[in-house]
Design goal:
- The chain is α/β, with parallel strands linked by helices and 119 residues long.
- Helix content is 45%, strand content 30%.
- It has a single domain, classed as Transcription Regulator spoIIAA, CATH 3.30.750.
- Helix 3 links the parallel strand 4 and strand 5.
- It is globular.
Length: 119
């Protein structure tokens, strides 16, 4: 599941749960659609609620990096758990995407309610 938050030209995609082959495919589709529908210059992938990630997670990040590069933007990775941050470093993702910390964690209830109110 992906929950989105938009502030100015920054789209934050809060990823939740496990990222494996099946879930990564759905996440890619949701994120790509959101990026194409909303002109943004920065995509933040919030990993703070990710509980497991296999190599599909690396592909997820690399694909969004390519998409954002084509659109003239960039990708940042927010708050990955330590073991995911290590995998990202070993795979070289830290050379493509900066790692940031979101000072105030996303209130998923508030974001979801705001999205429902706009619909």
């Amino acid at each position: 599941m992906v929950v989105f938050s938009l502030k100015k030209h920054t789209l934050t995609a809060a990823l939740n749960g496990e990222i494996d082959h099946h879930s990564a495919m759905q996440m890619r589709t949701e994120i790509d659609r959101a990026v194409r529908e909303t002109p943004v210059s920065l995509l933040i992938l919030d990993f703070s609620r990710v509980t497991f990630m296999d190599s599909s997670g690396i592909g997820l990040v690399m694909g969004r990096y390519k998409l954002m590069s084509e659109l003239g933007g960039e990708v940042a990775i927010a708050d990955p758990p330590a073991y995911i941050a290590k995998v990202m470093r070993l795979s070289g993702l830290d050379r493509l995407c900066r790692t940031v910390s979101i000072a105030k964690p996303l209130d998923l209830t508030e974001v979801t309610n705001n999205a429902e109110n706009k619909a």
